[in-house]
Amino acid sequence: MRRWRMGALCLLGLGLGASALAQTPSGDLDEVARGKYLVTAADCVACHTAPGGQLMAGGVKIPTPAGTLVTPNITPDPEHGLGQWSAEEFYRALHEGIGRHGEYLYPAFPFDAYTHLSRDEVTAIWAYLRTVPPVASTPPPSELRFPFNQRALLWGWRLLNFRHADERPRPPLDTPAARGQHLAEALAHCGTCHTPRNWSLGMDAGRPMQGGSLGGWYAPDLRPGRRVGLDDAPDAELASYLRTGQGGHAVAAGPMAEVVQQSLSQLPATDIDDLVAWLRNLPRADGPNPTPATASSGAVATAALLGVLRHGYHGEVLPDDGAHIYAGLCSSCHGLDGSGGPDRAYPDLLQAASVQAARADNLVMTVLQGVHRAAPAAPADMPGYAGQLDDAQIAAVSNWISGRAGIQRQLTAADVRILRAGQPKRPVLLQQVVTGCVAAVLLLLVLWLAWRRRRR
């Protein structure tokens, strides 16, 4: 139940592992404890607990191209939450994306992933949610633009994008890769971020885990051959990144920091090992790995850098020059040359995955929003500069940092403006119009067919 943007509090713990659950008869487990584990693995708290709010009381705002969705209260309160729902209605919501009164649920709720959960798993989740303290409050309504505020039009979206899992038994979870796949694709719904979207904003089923943009951040292609700096990384390094948010030169920021904080850092080591096995088992990408252009050596010379900085930043209004911005805001932690300083307490920007990536989205977003991760093993708190630097300054310092790493970028203020707004680099308005028109045509077709059937 992950949001399309960042920010929430880590509120859940667990004591059970997916490997044990897969191999132990359900009757031998405490159902509530198992449900708590599953809720943690599914990252439900991120969407249903507002910052500073009460557990599972909803009210989290999710910006989408169609407007702002507000998540519901899923505590057992009878008036404001799920107190009057039945277990079967809850199962239908997770498996089919249909609410208690037969209404279609918006796909920001990842029922297209949860449809692959077993009935036993959904029953355990339901059992745990019934133990959450009830909260007697209703979040404000969502604010979606017409025609997207008409739930009936979701019929067309579902026809194009949703495939309900049938009731046949799941494949046996008898290998680490199989258990990791179920954890990643059904519970953690990794594809929500890491799979590209099609023209109707549904996940592109033909390109699973091949990278996607949401809220300005870019979730990279996870296939072997596309993971910058990770293909040759040892399993322990990948496991460290998933568990703590730091592994090698990769640092979890944005929505991935939220996933680590809320969910992955709470999982047992066996689950993390299974996820690593799943990552290793993904189909290898064909073709060359895209890389950014390399800058000339003269552009990254340390002597040139120090020569520029002799004029130093002394607290005045920052100029648009990337070197001066870096000197004033970044060098105290990351060192004058970007290598992390003498004690290496901060990341080496010259090797950072966000800097080395072919796309600069995550570098820009990190400068804008910072890094805020409270995972116990490796907390991180870097300030964001969205309120201090304008778009041109963000572009300048991002280009300069890239140049220090030997990468030539030509980001502009317009590029930063798009990412700052959290919008994808495509004609969203046209896409919305086309999506609405197609959905309307599909609805009219259904009504016409129903009318003809009655006449017969």
What is the structural class? Answer: mainly alpha
Alpha carbon gap, first and last residue:
44 Å
Strand content bin: 5-15%
Q: Gyration radius, to the nearest Å? A: 23 Å
Tally the beta strands: 11
Query: Strands across the major sheet, in which order?
Result: 1-2-3
Overall average residue pLDDT = 79
Specify the biggest β-sheet: 3 strands, antiparallel
Portion in helices: 40-55%
Q: What does the overall shape look like?
A: globular
Note poorly predicted spans: 1-29, 296-318, 424-431
Instruction: Tally the helices.
Output: 20
Account of the 3D structure:
With about 450 residues, the chain is mainly alpha-helical. The protein contains 20 helices and 11 strands. The chain has helices at about 20-25, 30-40, 45-50, 85-95, 110-115, 120-130, 155-160, 175-185, 190-195, 235-245, 255-260, 270-280, 300-310, 320-330, 330-335, 355, 360-370, 390-405, 415-420, 430-455, and strands at about 60-65, 65-70, 145, 210-215, 215-220, 245, 250, 295, 370-375, 380, 405-410. A hairpin with a 2-residue loop joins strand 1 and strand 2 (about 65-70). Helix 10 (about 235-245) packs across helix 12 and helix 18 (about 390-405) crosses helix 19. The longest helix has 28 residues, at about 430-455. The radius of gyration is 23 Å and the shape is globular. Mean pLDDT is about 80; it is low at about 1-30, about 295-320 and about 425-430.
